[in-house]
Write a structure and sequence with these properties.
mainly alpha, 2 domains, three-stranded antiparallel β-sheet
Length: 449
C-alpha cells in the first residue's frame, strides 16, 4: 500500500536475503491466517542491516513460541518503530493472539488521526481489528479515545449523519387518520409532527439494530479474534491481511484512502459491519441526542384548531364544528360558474322553425315537396332544442354532484382532523418512548456490539 511503499535502500545490497525474508514472511502470514501459529521450520533468513522486517519477524516468531522477543524487537524498533509496531499488532490480531501486544505498540502503530488528512490503510485495519475485539476491551477503548479527541461530528452536517443511519426516508408520512385525505398529510402543520415521529422511530430501530447483541451473534463474518483457528482467509473483510502483505512488500497498489468522516458515515449505513457501526454510533451520539430532542419536540406539536385544506381544487377552511360556510359557499359558486357552460341562444333552431313554418304556409299553394321540407326543418330545430336542453341538464347534474361531493369531503375532512388530533396524544407518547430508548441505546455505546 502507498504508505508502506518506501522500503529501505539496504535491500538492494542483498537481494537474495530480501527474497528469503519475504518468502518466510509470506509463509508466516499464511500459517497465521490458517491456524494462528508460526511455520514449523525455524526462520532461515539472514539479517539485512537497516531493514526492520527480519528482526520483526524474529520477534513475532519468539512471541508465538513463548520465547523472549526483546533482542530482535529492540533491533526492529530501532530501524523502523512504527512499521514494526504495526506489523506485530496486525499479525497477532490475525493469529487470534492480539492480547499479547504491548500497550505502547498500538499507539505507535496507529499514529495520529487528523480531520485534514485521509485515514491510512494501516490505521483503518487497526481500527477494524480493535472494533472486532482483537485486542480486547482496551483496544476498543483506544480507538474510541482517538476518535473522541477529534470533533468529528462538527465536520459534517447533522442531516448527513441521519441520512447515513436511515436512508430512503419517505417524502410524506400519511398517518392512519388521514388515509382518506393524503393531500392533507402534505400540509406543513400536519406533516411536521408525523414526519418527526416517523424519523424518530426509524432512528430508534436502526440504533437498536446496531447495538443489539443478536446482531453481533448472527454476523456473517467471523471475528478477528481467532481462538478456534478460523482461517483469516475466509473473513469477509481481509483488510488486516492485505495491509500485512503490503507492509512486508508483497502487496500491490493500494486503493484510495478516505477521510475520517467518510469512513464513519459509511460505517453507519445499513449493512455495515456491526462492530464498526457501534464505534461510529458512539461518535455520532452527540448529534443524535440533539436530533432526538428536536424530533420529540416536533412530534408533540399540537394540531391546529382550524385549517385550510384543498378539496376538489378549492380551499376550504375547516373549523372544529364543521367547514366554514363562507369558504364553502365561495367554492360552490366557483363550481357553479365553472360547471355551467354558457350556452348561446338557439338562433339556428329558431331560424329553422321560421323557415319551416314559411315552407308549410307556402305549401298550400305549391307542391307537397315544399311541405316536406318545412316539416324536416321544424323537426331538425326541435332536435337541436332537445339536445341543448340535455346539455343544460347534464351541466346542472354535474354541478350538483360536485357541490354534494365537496360538502361530503369537507365534512369528512373535519372528522379526519378530529381523528388526527386524537392521534396526536398517542404519537407524542410514542415519540417520548422512542427518544428515551434512543438515548439509552446511545448511552450503552459500542460495548453492546
Amino acid at each position: 500500500m502507498g504508505e508502506f511503499s518506501a522500503l529501505s535502500t539496504d535491500l538492494t545490497a542483498s537481494p537474495p536475503a530480501a527474497t528469503e525474508v519475504h518468502r518466510y514472511a509470506e509463509a508466516l502470514l499464511a500459517h497465521l491466517a490458517a491456524n494462528g501459529t508460526a511455520p514449523p521450520a525455524a526462520p532461515g533468513f539472514r539479517d539485512i542491516p537497516g531493514y526492520w522486517l527480519p528482526p520483526a519477524v524474529e520477534a513475532l516468531a519468539a512471541i508465538l513460541s513463548g520465547a523472549d522477543p526483546l533482542e530482535p524487537l529492540s533491533r526492529a524498533a530501532g530501524r523502523d518503530q512504527q512499521r514494526t509496531a504495526l506489523f506485530l499488532c496486525l499479525a497477532l490480531a490475525v493469529s487470534g493472539q492480539g492480547s499479547r501486544i504491548h500497550a505502547s505498540w498500538l499507539g505507535t502503530a496507529f499514529g495520529e488521526l487528523s480531520l485534514d488528512r485521509p485515514v491510512t490503510h494501516g490505521q483503518r485495519s487497526l481500527w477494524l481489528a480493535a472494533a472486532r475485539g482483537a485486542y480486547g476491551p482496551a483496544g476498543k477503548i483506544f480507538v474510541l479515545r482517538k476518535l473522541d479527541a477529534l470533533a468529528v461530528p462538527d465536520h459534517a452536517p447533522p442531516d448527513q449523519w441521519i441520512q447515513a443511519l436511515v436512508p430512503g426516508e419517505p417524502s410524506v408520512v400519511v398517518p392512519p387518520s388521514l388515509a382518506d385525505f393524503p393531500e392533507m398529510a402534505e400540509i406543513p402543520e400536519l406533516a411536521r409532527p408525523s414526519m418527526a415521529a416517523d424519523r424518530l422511530a426509524r432512528l430508534r430501530g436502526r440504533c437498536a439494530e446496531i447495538t443489539s447483541a443478536r446482531q453481533a451473534e448472527h454476523r456473517s463474518s467471523p471475528p478477528l479474534d481467532n481462538p478456534s483457528g478460523t482461517p483469516a482467509a475466509t473473513w469477509a473483510d481481509n483488510e488486516p491481511l492485505a495491509v500485512l502483505r503490503s507492509l512486508i512488500g508483497l502487496g500491490g497498489p493500494a486503493g484510495p484512502m478516505a477521510s475520517l468522516s467518510t469512513y464513519l458515515l459509511d460505517d453507519l449505513r445499513p449493512g455495515a459491519d456491526p462492530h464498526l457501526a457501534a464505534i461510529a454510533l458512539h461518535v455520532a451520539a452527540p448529534i443524535l441526542r440533539g436530533v432526538a430532542e428536536e424530533l420529540e419536540a416536533d412530534s408533540r406539536q399540537e394540531p391546529p384548531d382550524t385549517l385550510t385544506v384543498p378539496l376538489l381544487g378549492h380551499r376550504i377552511h375547516l373549523r372544529p364544528e364543521g367547514p366554514d360556510q363562507s369558504s364553502l359557499a365561495a367554492a360552490e359558486n366557483a363550481i357553479v360558474t365553472e360547471g355551467a357552460v354558457p350556452r348561446p341562444r338557439p338562433w339556428a333552431a329558431m331560424a329553422l322553425i321560421v323557415v319551416g313554418v314559411a315552407c308549410l304556409a307556402g305549401a298550400v299553394a305549391a307542391t307537397s315537396l315544399l311541405a316536406a321540407a318545412g316539416v324536416a326543418m321544424i323537426g331538425l330545430a326541435g332536435w337541436q332544442l332537445w339536445q341543448r336542453r340535455k346539455l343544460i341538464e347534464a351541466d346542472a347534474r354535474f354541478v350538483a354532484a360536485q357541490v354534494s361531493e365537496l360538502k361530503e369531503l369537507a365534512d369528512g375532512a373535519v372528522w379526519a382532523l378530529h381523528a388526527y388530533g386524537r392521534e396526536a396524544d398517542v404519537r407524542a407518547t410514542q415519540a417520548a418512548d422512542d427518544a428515551a430508548e434512543l438515548t439509552r441505546l446511545i448511552r450503552r455505546g459500542p460495548r453492546a456490539a
